[in-house]
């Protein structure tokens, strides 16, 4: 992939861009194999590769510059603004959106936030696209509600220019810290759920719910999990750290009893909506802490699926699983190092299958799916 921003030294987020893509995959696979070497996995599946550009479904843009000439992109370490609108990781459909947003910021009088001076209102623009119909979710991250009335008044022009905008909201992030969003979300459109579909499963994305940034590879990840779970023929399952329910909804069958747990209430609302659409009466989702939910239970399902954040599932949940001994654990991870640390604590399980999914080309990051069977 060629990137003028990288060549100019303006953005080096894609740290591995100079490595041939085939070498990136080889290096990631070698890293994973080294981490799991002591556990002697029984079966390795070939890595799932990604498109090398235009694979991202979302953009997180720092807004800087002036109200008349806003810059959408990032701030370099020296504080200089870098325009990332031409980033080749974004689909071509994002370019006309960025082109409209720049004059809209001026129309709405949304002064970009100046980090050095701690002044201004508009901090970030967050854009997400659905692969289903090309509809968009747009979020304005503001320092306060001071410019909210101006934003509302200017929105009809933006909606006329960009009829693909399905969900619009304002997030209030008042603190002077490198935090992407705050707790308060203010709806600016009646609809606050962006429809998505991966494989044959309807999914929903709400403003504060997490969704994978590489939907093509995510679809393959979910499909693989479904295939592996169906082969096990289990009828009870927990989906911990379930997000919007991608794994559980793919794996569930009409006869399965499945409980999905996720601390983010917005994500649970999405998962519940999908389960209702699919007619899955045996599936339920709850907004709870996954570790607290599990460790408070005296029962255990046949399969526990975990998809934790980068920190892994941690010692407390590992100890609970070791004590309750479910027959199978399906571990999806975005950080193979913490996954390997967790697996080291699950001494009574053997690794049956492992597969790498390259969700993040041109970086050292990747996703991995690991099936463990109790011995």
UniProtKB/TrEMBL annotation:
Q: Which PROSITE patterns match?
A: SAM_MT_RNA_M5U (PS51687), TRMA_1 (PS01230), TRMA_2 (PS01231)
Swiss-Prot/TrEMBL catalytic activity: uridine(747) in 23S rRNA + S-adenosyl-L-methionine = 5-methyluridine(747) in 23S rRNA + S-adenosyl-L-homocysteine + H(+)
Against Gene3D superfamilies, the record matches this protein to: 2.40.50.1070, Vaccinia Virus protein VP39
One Pfam family name from the record?
A: tRNA_U5-meth_tr
Gene Ontology terms describing biological process: rRNA base methylation
Q: Which GO terms describe its molecular function?
A: 4 iron, 4 sulfur cluster binding; iron ion binding; rRNA (uridine-C5-)-methyltransferase activity
Enzyme nomenclature, EC number: 2.1.1.189
* Active site positions: 334
Record-annotated residues binding [4Fe-4S] cluster?
3, 11, 14, 87
Where S-adenosyl-L-methionine is bound, by residue?
Answer: 212, 241, 262, 307
Keyword terms, alphabetized:
4Fe-4S, Iron, Iron-sulfur, Metal-binding, Methyltransferase, rRNA processing, S-adenosyl-L-methionine, Transferase
Identify which top EC class this enzyme belongs to.
transferase
Q: Entry's InterPro entries?
A: 23SrRNA_MeTrfase_RlmC, MeTrfase_TrmA_AS, MeTrfase_TrmA_CS, SAM-dependent_MTases_sf, U5_MeTrfase_fam
Q: Does the keyword Coiled coil apply?
A: no
The entry's function note states: Catalyzes the formation of 5-methyl-uridine at position 747 (m5U747) in 23S rRNA.
The protein here is known as: 23S rRNA (uracil(747)-C(5))-methyltransferase RlmC
